[in-house]
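Trying the structure run again after the queue cleared.
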Amino acid sequence: MRYTQALLLHTLDAFQGKRSVNAAFHLLRGKRSSQTIQDAGFFSMAPLYGCGATSLSKDEFMKAVRDLWSQGDIVSSKKGHADVTASGRSKAQEIAPLPDGLNGIRFHASTQLFWRRLYHLIHSLHVEEEKQHYLLTEKHLLDWVTTFTKSSSFSSWTTKAFEELDTILSKNDPLQAEVFVQRLSRPGRTGRTLRQLGVDFGMDSVWAEVYWRSTVHTILHNVLSQPNQFEAMAAVLPKEARSPLTITAQKTYQLARQAIPIERIASIRRLRGSTIEDHLVEIASHIEDFAWTEYITQEDASVIQTVLAHSKHLTLKQLKQELPERISYFHIRLCMAREKGAFFHQRT
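Done. Tokens:
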């Protein structure tokens, strides 16, 4: 639990009391809301986005909050908010400094599918070797694995895959690499769960997940930045990993690139205009060359950017109160996405 506490301290410290404790939970769980994604970019917490999506429960999270408060590591600043004390900040770094390689805002959507493909491909080798019956209930994944393993290039893929993994993992933190490897199945032994790994390595399951995700993100980063060097891993890469956008935002982006107005995009996609605005904010946050100025005047953008640079009030409501009435919440969020967008914090 102390590792979960450290993770929470890192997050709350970055929020500086400007976001609620619940907002920290949503960020660590990887909630796909525009506010949470915006928080990840604006507070430079893009790496930790979704890092506890598998293992962090709300009950465990709230217990960590209560424990931190009783220990004097956080203090209540206002209802639902908390500030990290000097002792809490020191404890977080001492217990669990954040690992390198995490890039949740970029890879959260593709981490699980990439992992499950890789896991089942490697597991299928052991099943065949031990003459076992291979069971996989997810049809889409079973179809993909079956097609892949029956291809003529699969035998050569296995050799290259292990070589590429060795190349990447040998440069990674040894403990992070070991957590990743131990999750894979091998002859005579199924992969360890996050809870088991927490026990094995003297940490809790949440921190085991952080280590595992950091390694998966490192692999994805290497594959995307050097696809010719890591061809075997690139073959496993989900198409979602090739774009930082959610699938639904990608569809909106294709229409936005044609200079189609928001109302028309909403009609074509049969979605609300506010949903299309959410997509445009996501696109502005991730795509550096996105023509975001098509949706706001230069004058209004300058006014918003000036307020963002000097205002200590970071909530949308407070920012709106400091700006001319003609400026909408969408305009503010659009500028915030450009000022603190996820592409400022990602490596690919």
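Residues 287 and 343 are 7 Å apart (CA to CA). Worth checking whether this holds up in the mutant runs.
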